[in-house]
User: Which sequence fits this backbone?
């Protein structure tokens, strides 16, 4: 389970065995999710391992499937870092981890806009760190050395309970956003089995004047990067799941959530409810499509599969109405 590129490792699930499983148990233990056993069971992915993986996934706001794939592997690596364990600075590839998220949150509640609390050390975090260092009289090197971390810890009590400045600014942008769909940039992604639905939504929104980019790359991270380059004002992802009830996810992590994403998810849930047996559930999650997009984003997990096949027109109308309502009524909240 290599730190440098966990995405390239194999999926692990019940029945897997070997050194990768032993390393998985070690990482779960470091993250506080102990899998007890002897030297033999340490190499085996058991039902106990699966249960602990599910708990870890839940706490990390990931899909709770008990399978250790690329997203869970990456989260396990990131969970091993605490602020002060290593020097953080702007680097290619960007540094990721819980220590970065902690830094972003601490800077944000002190009034320094480090960007979204996504655990990715990017340009916004670097600028915010430099501003912080200048304001407290430390050398402005953009590195979280010992002195910088000490100052952040010492100031923690003064900012307890404060809202990160990035969240305050998002709320202000939502209140001031332009009304109407004409020329608005929307990224619409689908992950297989939703092609007809995505096309129908795209057609509807374009008829209202929106500039819609339709994405069908299988990787969430790739869709997020393209949506960012497109400078979309919102991202809506569509995925079919084998479940009796649909759910909608927006970005959220410890101490931060995307208010725009939450609002859009709520509007979608309201419009989808008549088509489902029950009102779709809303979840704050850290999935790549939500974490790496820079705009309000919602990932719709549609179920059961028959709903997508039999109600494509109705679903397209529901999503189009939700997006239209969100974009044309900036003061309205669900």
Assistant:
């Amino acid at each position: 389970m290599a730190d440098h590129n966990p995405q390239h490792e194999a999926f692990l699930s019940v029945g897997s065995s070997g050194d990768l499983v032993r390393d998985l148990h070690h990482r779960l233990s470091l993250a506080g999710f102990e899998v007890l056993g002897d030297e033999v069971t340490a190499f085996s992915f058991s039902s106990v391992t699966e249960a602990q993986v599910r708990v870890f996934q839940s706490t990390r706001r990931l899909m709770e499937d008990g399978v250790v794939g690329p997203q869970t592997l990456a989260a396990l690596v990131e969970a091993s870092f605490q602020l002060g364990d290593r020097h953080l600075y702007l680097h290619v590839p960007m540094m990721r981890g819980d220590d970065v998220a902690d830094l972003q949150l601490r800077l944000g509640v002190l009034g320094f806009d480090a960007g979204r609390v996504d655990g990715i050390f990017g340009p916004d975090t670097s600028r915010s760190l430099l501003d912080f260092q200048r304001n407290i009289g430390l050398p402005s090197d953009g590195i979280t050395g010992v002195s910088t971390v000490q100052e952040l810890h010492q100031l923690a009590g003064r900012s307890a309970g404060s809202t990160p400045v990035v969240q305050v600014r998002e709320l202000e942008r939502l209140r001031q956003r332009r009304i109407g769909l004409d020329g608005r940039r929307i990224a619409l992604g689908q992950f297989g089995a939703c092609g007809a639905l995505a096309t129908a939504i795209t057609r509807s929104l374009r008829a209202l004047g929106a500039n819609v980019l339709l994405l069908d790359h299988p990787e969430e991270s790739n869709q997020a990067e393209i949506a960012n380059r497109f400078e979309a004002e919102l991202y809506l992802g569509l995925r079919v799941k084998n479940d009796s009830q649909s759910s909608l996810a927006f970005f959220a992590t410890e101490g931060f959530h995307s208010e725009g994403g939450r609002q859009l998810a709520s509007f979608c849930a309201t419009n989808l409810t008549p088509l489902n047996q029950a009102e779709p559930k809303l979840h704050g999650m850290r999935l790549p499509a939500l974490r790496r997009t820079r705009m309000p984003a919602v990932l719709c997990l549609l179920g059961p599969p028959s709903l997508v096949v039999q109600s494509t027109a109705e679903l397209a109308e529901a999503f189009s109405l939700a997006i239209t309502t969100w974009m044309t009524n900036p003061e309205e909240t669900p």
User: Anything to note?
Assistant: The CA atoms of residues 269 and 280 lie 5 Å apart. The first helix runs from residue 19 to 30. The longest strand covers residues 234-240.
